[in-house]
Amino acid sequence: MLPIPNYFKYGLSVGFMGLIILISYVELNKNTITPKKTSADYFVEDQHFFSNSSSVYPTVDGCNCLFSTENLTLVPHGENVPVFIPEDLSPMEPDILDKIVVNRRDDGILITIAGYAMRNELYNWIELLKEAREDSFIVFCTDTKLYLHLIVAGYEDKAVLIPDDWFIGDLELFRSTENNMLDNYLPRLSHIKTWVLQRLSYVKDINNVFLLDVNQIMLHARTREYLQTLLHIRWDTQLITTQDSLDQHVFNTGLIMMRTDAGDAKRVLENTVQIQELKPGLTQQEALNKAMDQMELHVKTGMTVLLDVMHFPNGINYFENNLSGSKGIEPYIIHINHKVGEERRELLKQNGFWKLDQEYIDSLSEQVEDIMKRREEASS
């Protein structure tokens, strides 16, 4: 019997090994799960959105997206529309920057926004600031008449006429000297607060902006210092505001301290602007709360600090419910937002919070009227 050649034995071994590999490959493919395929409907302008029935997130109703969302699953706390944060805005006017630098304190500025129809409340607000030893602030004027009034009163270095290009729309409405953000229920008027805050959020010369409505009366010295301390305790705190009720679910935008050049704060402001433009019937406060609903907020690690109602009460809690007084607490700031017009002024007078010299303010108003009249005659 002839011996079997070595090359033949080697060939049989290789063939046997190949057969084993082939059988293993076939068995493995039998157990492979066929992946689910995503519909082509998910591709919208090169954006790929994935969803399947095993998602742990419930579908969110009421999205105001620009395209069909039938096949999409929205995650909680996601924006309802794409939010594009501007890398920068148009350069700020040099004279405005100069006034910001002059009036900043501890790298922050205190501001309010007002029109001519609010002049009495504005000057009362200024007098109360002085009593609280707060003399650095800026008034952003919606109309030329109030700006001129402040100049005549000696506040030129603290007065800024809001430039036309800061208004996103309805310039004539905002420039009107008859409209009063405190007493006229025109939601659109309140939108200017978001636009001003957004502009200031890009200013490099300051670290924070403290916005107060003129019906937010300051009673304590060093209130701003206290809030700035809260802002800087945690590096991720970007927004401080008050609560509009005791349930801590609604932010009140009459008081806002905001860290400038902060990503999340800029995102909230841009989203608020978009909501205001999509739904102009909403007030600035309602729009900002909708924007905040789309952010994931945590008490200990979130971007927002909510001030307590004892030290920062609204009018109902302070005057009617005696919330602070019953605990022997003197508030830092009271928001007189439950009365309008003459009722608000009478309430302030009865409680010693009306510091206005009406005769003096009226004399300034007469001077302003005379200046405006001569200007009109000169231009005609």
TrEMBL record:
A GO cellular component entry from the record: Golgi apparatus
Signal peptide (from-to): none
Origin superkingdom: Eukaryota
InterPro entries listed in its UniProt record: UDP-D-xylose:L-fucose_XylT
Keywords noted in UniProt: Membrane, Transmembrane, Transmembrane helix
GO molecular function, one term: glycosyltransferase activity
Transmembrane helix is among the record's keywords: yes
Residue intervals passing through the bilayer: 7-26
Protein name, entry field: Nucleotide-diphospho-sugar transferase domain-containing protein
